[in-house]
Amino acid sequence: QKHLVESGGGLVQPGGSLRLSCAASGFTLDDYAIGWFRQVPGKEREGVSCLSSTGTSRNYADSVKGRFTISRDNANNTVYLQMNNLTPGDTAVYYCMADSYECFLRVTQGYDYWGQGTQVTVSS
Fold it and tell me: Are the CB atoms for 35 and 22 separated by under 8 Å?
């Protein structure tokens, strides 16, 4: 069975850091474009970061540029999102995705695979 499982979420103080992980099972991530999206209750899901299957194209939402870094570890079939200098505005459920074609920040549905989500709460 093919699926994605996120981990690494939690409660962190403003200015702190977290690293989210997304492990793939049943398929090889290096054949897929990958990305991270987030959603706050009552609001639409928004794109956070995308990474092409070749690794040559990275995109970030303006709100996270310079603070978040997306990466992949093909040997471990895992995607990461390093989040630094977190603010309360980053509080959300974070979802990873994988698609055999591409990832677009403005496209928030229709991808091949989604994880179940991991909660990130930034609060003092």
Answer: no
